[in-house]
Specification:
The chain has 430 residues and is of the alpha/beta class. Helix content is 30%, strand content 27%. The structure holds shikimate-3-phosphate. Residues 22, 94-95, 166-169, 171, 193, 315-316, 339 line the site of shikimate-3-phosphate.
């Protein structure tokens, strides 16, 4: 599908971004192995989360969606999953595959996990290695690529220093740790999203986190308690509007009910360090997660440096940061972000290519990008390459460029934000 955008005269109004993708996956999986039923409100019905739901159904978990944004899960209990009769298709979703590997490594049956071409090319050794140290039996294609086959078995706790900052890997080990004898300790090289830890704690797991880069989880004694919750809005879905508003000459937007978990707010810190006008209002808690409204206005931007802990705290937003800094005064360096190369696409390459097609000069490094601004973008044909975050970044870029921009494979936004195009229309004033 093609979509054509041009710069709106102004941006006004308020939006409620869709539910957090990471929390929606976790609510479906963790409630699926809990003992009892739970209601999840503001569940994200995106392609990725629906893939998780289909996998849970194949594993014997009952669920229904009485309306588009509500999910009711009938947990099977920690030993209640059933051997799936066919391969589990995780589609485009790394979170589905990596979190399920952690659970399935401990179930007494055979599971096979597969996905689309992008997911089958992404690295899985990073979950296989620690789980094998715990005793798991996992087979993969060459170089740890999916499909994966798991013969569940009994596991033992380990102490594991993660070589890469990845919440999916951390979560896989923690989930396996719920089933493993003794204690499992995970050390992170940087602060990745902690939605797993917060949710499992609410569900009664014996888990300790938040004091330094270490998570400790003990084998579950009883059952996990089901957790009914309202999923906060996804800061990754708010991010396109944040960047569009700060870089547009006439914008004022209110983004309501956005999750502002500090492991996720790197994009706000980066934009503020660039001089953006962003206010956080009405902070409150939804279950274990902080939520707020965000007010964002046009401003003048300067370049910045993105490195260190800011990288895992903004990992999915870095393509949008690269766009913002094209329009900012001065030089920006984004470094230590080599993880971008193993996302749904090689996002160092696809971000640089996409911005260059709009006339930007962007230097690619092995672990990031260098951009000198300000630059003028001019409309063109651009390619999302089937990567939802690229499609959204290119749409925002097209709204900041001169002339018209046509985005190929624009439908890929549905992986995380099914009503993205509609929301763009809602805030655009022509
Ligand atoms: C996610 C973790 C991140 C992120 C992905 C969602 C999660 O991946 O990029 O979109 O829900 O745990 P990594 O664990 O590979 O960093």
């Amino acid at each position: 599908m093609l979509r054509t955008v041009r710069r709106p005269r102004a941006l006004r109004g308020s939006l409620t971004p869709p539910g957090n993708k990471s929390i929606s996956h976790r609510a479906a999986i963790f409630n699926g192995i809990a003992d009892g039923s739970a209601i999840v409100e503001n569940f994200l019905p995106s392609a990725d989360c629906l893939a998780t739901l289909r996998c849970m159904r194949r594993l014997g978990v009952g669920w229904r969606r009485p309306d588009e944004l509500t999910l009711e899960v009938e947990g099977a209990g920690k030993q209640g999953l059933k051997e799936p009769e066919a391969a589990l298709d995780c589609a485009n979703s790394g979170t589905t595959m990596r979190l399920l590997v952690g659970v399935l490594a401990a179930q007494p049956f055979l599971s096979i996990l597969t996905g689309d071409g992008s997911l089958r090319s992404r690295p899985m050794a990073r979950v296989i290695d620690p789980l094998e140290q715990m005793g798991a039996r996992i087979w993969s294609r060459r170089e740890g690529r999916a499909p994966l086959a798991l013969q569940g078995t009994s596991l033992r706790g380990i102490r594991y220093g993660m070589p890469v900052a990845s919440a999916q890997v951390k979560s896989a080990i923690i989930l396996a740790g719920l089933y493993a004898e003794g204690e499992t300790v995970v050390e992170e090289p940087g602060p990745t999203r902690d939605h797993t830890e917060r949710m499992l704690q609410e569900m009664g797991a014996d888990i300790r986190f938040g004091e330094g880069p270490v998570v400790r989880v003990k084998q579950l004694r009883g059952e996990l308690k089901p957790l009914s919750l309202r999923v906060p809005g996804d800061i990754s879905a708010a991010a396109p509007w944040l960047v569009l508003a700060v870089a547009h000459p006439d914008a004022e937007l209110r983004l309501a009910d956005v999750g502002v978990n500090p492991t996720r707010t790197g994009i706000i810190d980066i934009l503020i360090s660039m001089g953006a006008q962003i206010e956080i209002e009405n902070e409150r808690r939804w279950g274990g997660e902080p939520v707020a409204d965000i007010v964002v206005r046009s401003g003048s931007l300067c370049g910045t440096i993105v490195e260190g802990h800011l990288v895992p705290r903004s990992i999915d937003e870095l393509p949008l940061v690269a766009l913002a800094v094209c329009l900012a005064e001065g030089e920006t360096v984004i470094r230590e972000a080599q993880e971008l190369r193993v996302k749904e696409s090689d996002r160092v390459r696809t971000t640089a290519d996409g911005l260059r097609r709009l006339g930007a000069r962007v230097d690619e490094m092995p672990d990031g990008l260098i951009v000198k601004g300000p630059q003028r973008l001019s409309g063109s044909r651009v390619y999302s390459r089937g990567d939802h975050r690229q499609a959204m970044m290119l749409a925002v870029a097209g709204c900041l460029a001169d002339g018209e921009t046509t985005i190929h494979k624009a439908e890929s936004v549905a992986v995380s934000y099914p009503w993205f195009w509609n929301h763009l229309q809602v805030i655009s004033v022509d």
